[in-house]
């Protein structure tokens, strides 16, 4: 099999025109990064084997949503024993959290996470209340450092991330390094805590504790095979009941809206773009990952309908995978941030304003890395659309 690794999944796609949930067998060939799709119900080839380099092997696991030629496919099951064994038995998800001392360095930390082959499937900036922090760290309530820890964890925003990968619980702990940042610097100098932490309490980031291999995904690909630490901690920030969880940090004043578009997220550019925004001096006062429905993308882009020729393509791009919404704060945020994003066409941006975000990270007019609010009077409305309406 090594010559021609072939992974098979069952995928669902919601066809908005027929208002139908369609089901496919999706086959991915690692050798030439090609995909093939077979319509299960109608017994016919839906997509002949085609090279599709945008899809990476790391993206392929049950529970994930992937974009194949602008269709958002939900991988609902493994299609054969080989795939289940090879992919399913090692995939885990865990909580990674960027602590208050390192939120300004979130770009570099996220870059490290992505470069290590993990996938980020959820993200949310929150400010923990004292009660929430005490609840999250309840296992430590009798420790001498508990008060310092709670004080630290409520001293500013944190970023909670759901991270998926092979043996994610243990491999994220390994990348994180020893608890004490000083010890991390001598024992594991490349680790996150060595690079970004300060001391024993201010140690840059958190990872769920190890779980026994018995808590691995079962072959049906369901993640909830146990009530282990990683699952409990993910539930704390991202409740599966759809319940509220800790609130986002959006201030909804003196701000503008930025969206890191799905193509840029799936190309692994999130960390680089965040880094750039922060090092240019803008404040990121809220951040959250969303996977938009088509109806929401249409509503969000309503003002461009009938005005911008690419409206339909813009909508398709915005809902073809997860995006990252940001509230950007700055004196004169809408205007300054717009200038920093650059002309909407990256080709033009590369000629006229080569240092702008779109010049450096955009591909074309639709896949231009980021959306930013056009009209200053819409800034607050756009931020509200994500952080008040969609996050509820
Ligand atoms: P980890 O975060 O590596 O799982 P623990 O669960 O033992 O470590 O502790 C939780 C957090 O409490 C640590 O990340 C650190 O911020 C803080 N902490 C742990 N031990 C100490 C200590 N001896 N002194 C001060 N703070 C500590
Ligand atoms: Mg711990």
Give the strand tally: 14
CATH superfamily of the largest domain: Nucleoside diphosphate kinase-like domain
Helix fraction, binned, reads 25-40%
Helix vs. strand class: alpha+beta
Mean pLDDT: 92
Unreliable spans are: 212-226
**End-to-end span in angstroms?**
46 Å
Key descriptive features of the protein:
single chain; 392 residues; alpha+beta; PH-domain like; Alpha-Beta Plaits; 3 domains; six-stranded antiparallel β-sheet; 16 helices; 14 strands; binds adenosine-5'-diphosphate; binds magnesium ion
Explained architecture:
There is one protein chain. A hairpin with a 4-residue loop joins strand 3 and strand 4. The chain is 32% helix and 25% strand. The chain is of the alpha+beta class. The chain has three domains: 85 residues, Roll (PH-domain like), CATH 2.30.29.170; 147 residues, Nucleoside diphosphate kinase-like domain (Alpha-Beta Plaits, 2-Layer Sandwich); 136 residues, 2-Layer Sandwich (Alpha-Beta Plaits), CATH 3.30.70.141. The relative contact order is 0.11. The longest helix has 12 residues. Helix 2 runs antiparallel to helix 10. The site of adenosine-5'-diphosphate has 9 residues, from loops.
Summed up:
It is built from 16 helices and 14 strands. It is α+β, with helices and mostly antiparallel strands.
Helix-strand layout with pairing:
Blueprint: E1 6-15, E2 20-29, E3 34-39, E4 44-51, E5 65-68, E6 71-78, H1 81-88, E7 91-98, H2 106-115, E8 119-126, H3 130-136, H4 146-153, E9 158-166, H5 168-176, H6 181-187, H7 192-196, E10 205-207, H8 229-237, E11 255-260, H9 262-266, H10 270-279, E12 283-290, H11 294-300, H12 311-318, E13 323-329, H13 333-341, H14 346-352, H15 357-361, E14 370-372, H16 379-390
Antiparallel strand pairs: 1-2, 1-6, 2-3, 3-4, 5-6, 7-9, 7-10, 8-9, 11-13, 11-14, 12-13
């Amino acid at each position: 099999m090594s010559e021609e690794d072939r992974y098979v999944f069952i995928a669902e796609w919601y066809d908005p025109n027929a208002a139908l949930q369609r089901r496919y067998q999706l086959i991915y060939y690692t050798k030439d990064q090609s995909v093939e799709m077979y319509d299960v119900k109608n017994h016919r080839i839906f997509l002949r084997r085609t090279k599709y380099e945008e899809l990476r092997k790391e993206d392929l696991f049950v529970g994930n949503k992937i974009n194949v030629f602008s269709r958002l496919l939900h991988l609902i099951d493994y299609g054969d024993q080989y795939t289940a064994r090879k992919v399913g038995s090692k995939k885990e998800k865990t909580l990674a959290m960027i602590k208050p001392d390192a939120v300004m360095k979130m770009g570099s930390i996220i870059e490290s996470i992505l470069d290590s082959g993990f996938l980020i499937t959820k993200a949310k900036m929150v400010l923990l209340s004292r009660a929430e922090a005490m609840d999250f760290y309840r296992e430590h309530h009798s420790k001498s450092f508990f008060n310092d820890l709670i004080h630290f964890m409520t001293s500013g925003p944190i970023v909670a991330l759901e991270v998926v990968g092979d043996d994610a619980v243990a491999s994220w702990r390994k990348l994180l390094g020893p608890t004490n940042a000083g010890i991390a610097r001598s024992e594991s100098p490349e680790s996150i805590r060595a690079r970004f932490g300060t001391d024993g309490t201010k140690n840059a980031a958190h990872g769920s504790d190890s779980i026994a291999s018995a808590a691995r995904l079962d072959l049906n690909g369901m993640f909830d095979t146990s009530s282990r630490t990683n699952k409990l901690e993910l539930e704390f920030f991202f409740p599966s009941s759809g319940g509220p969880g800790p609130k986002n940090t959006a201030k909804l004043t003196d701000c503008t809206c930025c969206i890191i578009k799905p193509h840029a997220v799936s190309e692994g550019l999130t960390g680089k773009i965040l880094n750039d925004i922060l090092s240019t001096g803008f404040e990121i006062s809220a951040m959250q990952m969303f996977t938009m429905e088509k109806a929401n993308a249409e509503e969000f882009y309503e003002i461009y309908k009938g005005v911008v020729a690419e409206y339909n393509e813009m909508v398709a791009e915005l809902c073809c995978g997860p995006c990252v919404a940001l509230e950007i704060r700055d004196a004169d945020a809408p205007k300054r941030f717009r200038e920093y994003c650059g002309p909407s066409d990256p080709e033009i941006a590369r000629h006229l304003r080569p240092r702008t975000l779109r010049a450096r990270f955009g591909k074309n007019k639709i896949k231009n890395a980021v959306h930013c609010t056009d009209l200053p009077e819409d800034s607050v409305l756009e931020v509200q659309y994500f952080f008040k309406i969609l996050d509820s």
